[in-house]
Amino acid sequence: MNHPAELTLHKLLTDLRDGKTSMSHSSIEQIVSGVRDSLERQFGGGGQQAFRLRMSNIGRPYCQLWYQKNRPDIERSLPTTFILNMMLGDIVEAVFKGLLTEAGVEYTDSEEVRLELEDGTIIKGTTDLSIDGAVDDVKSASPWSYMHKFSDFQTLKKGDSFGYVGQLAGYAKGLDKKAGGWWVVNKANGNFKYVEANELDIDEEITTLQDKVQKLDVNEFERSFEAVPEYYRRKPTGNTVLNSACKFCDYKRDCYKSLITRPSIPSTAKEPPEVDYVHIEEKYND
Fold it and tell me: N or C: which end of the chain has fewer CB within 10 A?
């Protein structure tokens, strides 16, 4: 376990499971209030907003921000279940905070953040919570993300296509607090863990954020990730495939006009995995 509160939470959940205690009315009301606020926010009819820099997107790769600013017309339409998925994440956050309260873990609830960069750009956002003077985020994750994306800080940073590291750094800098980490809850089974941002260099991340703002002012497109060679049994096939950081990008097919998604070419499996190919050697086109 990476955080002292993890043990405290597991003790509470064990006692709740075994009928040794029950959640207080005040903690239940706190959760209900959090869910109500989310219902009003998610189902309030606001719809998708026009592009602006904010804490929730400033950590994303520059190429995504460029597309959001310049080519919103080609963004993949959000699924009809998008709001429901956001609602599930908000419910997880509300329940998790209620459990922290019931377990006696002292924390500072959501705070408004206003970060001013060197060029005068203002980035605003709202934190989830802070414990012992360190800013934390609460994330709900799929089983795959829980196991692979949120395994540790370096793994998260390497494939941080959603900008979680930059977001946390922005919160910490804006509030003049330490960067804590991420409370991650597995949406499939309720498992949770704490991923500590113990190697996060706040000043380095803020410099990166400032660089992206300056690039957006110049407004020239630049890829943040390039295609990578495909290997099979440790040998290159000559093909190139989409960088894993681009896998869920809404703009990948416009960014790479040649992109073809098809079963893995060298795989001998009965059902080969789907692969995003940027370039396929002519010998494989027979």
Answer: C
Residue 18: enclosing H or E segment and its boundaries?
A: none
For the chain, the domain total comes to 2
- Position 137 in a domain: yes
d(CA 151, CA 167): 18
Residue 85 included in any domain: yes
Do residue 235 and residue 210 come from a single domain? no
Distance CA 182, CA 3 (A): 10
pLDDT at 284: 79
Q: Specify the higher pLDDT residue, 244 or 220.
A: 220
Range of the domain at 244: 228-284
Looking at the structure, tell me whether residues 196 and 274 fall in a common domain. Answer: no
Rounded Cα–Cα distance for residues 55 and 171 (Å): 8
Query: What predicted TM-score, i.e. pTM, was given to this entire model?
Result: 0.90
Q: What's the confidence (pLDDT) of residue 159? A: 83
Q: Are residues 16 and 152 in the same domain?
A: yes
Average pLDDT over residues 241-260: 92
